[in-house]
Specification:
By secondary structure, the chain is α/β, with parallel strands linked by helices. The chain has helices at residues 2-13, 20-38, 47-50, 55-80, 84-90, 93-104, 118-130, 149-153, 165-175, 186-194, 199-205, 208-221; strands at 109-113, 134-143, 180-184, 227-230, 236-240, 245-249, 261-266, 270-277.
């Protein structure tokens, strides 16, 4: 999986002459388009987002990126359909942090972004690479079957850490001997405020450039620039066939939704990790 994400990131770097905002729109569009195509659904609901993108980027999304994203979505399905014993292991916060530590050792900072999906991580890592830094996807995946913060915070020991996302951030930072730990709720707030209005509104409200500058500043603060980007869950991309529009939500449960809704990308249930190096 991490190799496919690296391929996607490298391809995104080549498009950054169009600006990070446009590349972010492109990535959202490409994932939604590929999801619709693999399910044999109409792409008509993507028209509002298409109108906000440069046409050359849209063409690249359909011709060059679709095969990579199609395979990523296949791997996501495989991860989420594994038997229960495997999922339990991958859904264990302590084991996940041990796996991260075995790969990166000590880091300078841990930045946790509530509700950030792999799409934002690809965009941010592309920006960092374009700025001359390294940004690597780790071969570690955390499974959050509920797609909610509470699934992670409940795993903390209340005697040592507050059962909040801040507590999770501090736990990871202490385990990796980081000097700095910070959390951001920006993406989560946007999902709750406008996510169900439509995908194009969501993309416009996420301040991807501000997030990129925040990460870049943190990387440049440290001689080694070793910063870990973390999330507690991502968000799901969902098609409303009844109203012909695409929206985002986290913790999507089909049993509680309109039967005409189709989950396109279940990213609220998976967490990926990126480490930066100067």
């Amino acid at each position: 999986m991490h190799q496919l994400l690296e391929m996607l990131r490298e391809a995104a770097v080549e498009l950054l002459d169009y600006s990070l905002v446009n590349v972010y729109k492109f990535l959202i569009y490409a994932f939604a388009y590929s999801s619709l195509m693999r399910k044999g659904l109409s792409v008509e609901a993507l028209r509002p987002l298409e109108r906000r993108m440069p046409s050359p980027i849209r063409i690249v999304a359909r011709s060059e990126f679709a095969p990579i994203i199609h395979e990523i979505l296949n791997r996501v399905d495989e991860l989420l359909s594994k038997t229960k014993p495997v999922v339990v292991t991958e859904a264990h916060l302590g084991e996940t942090v041990k796996a991260i530590r075995s790969r990166v050792g000590k880091v300078d900072a841990v930045l946790t972004y509530d509700c950030m999906s792999v799409i934002e991580q690809v965009a941010l890592s592309a920006y960092l690479v374009k700025q001359g830094m390294r940004a690597v996807f780790l071969d570690v995946v955390f499974v959050n079957p509920l797609g909610r913060t509470s699934f992670v915070t409940k795993q903390l020991d209340a005697a040592t850490h507050e059962k909040t996302l801040r507590g999770v951030t501090e736990y990871i930072a202490e385990s990796l001997r980081a000097y700095i730990s910070r959390k951001s709720t920006h993406v989560d707030k946007v999902v709750h405020e406008v996510g169900q209005i439509g995908l194009e509104e969501f993309v416009d409200r996420v301040s991807i450039e501000s997030l990129a500058q925040e990460v870049s500043r943190e990387v440049l603060r440290h001689p080694s620039g070793k910063v870990l980007l973390v999330s507690d869950h991502g968000y799901d991309i969902v098609l409303s066939r009844r109203d012909s529009f695409i929206y985002v939500v986290h913790g999507y449960a089909s049993s509680k939704r309109d039967p005409e809704d189709v989950e396109l990308a279940p990213f609220s249930k998976l967490v990926f990790f990126v480490v930066t190096i100067r």
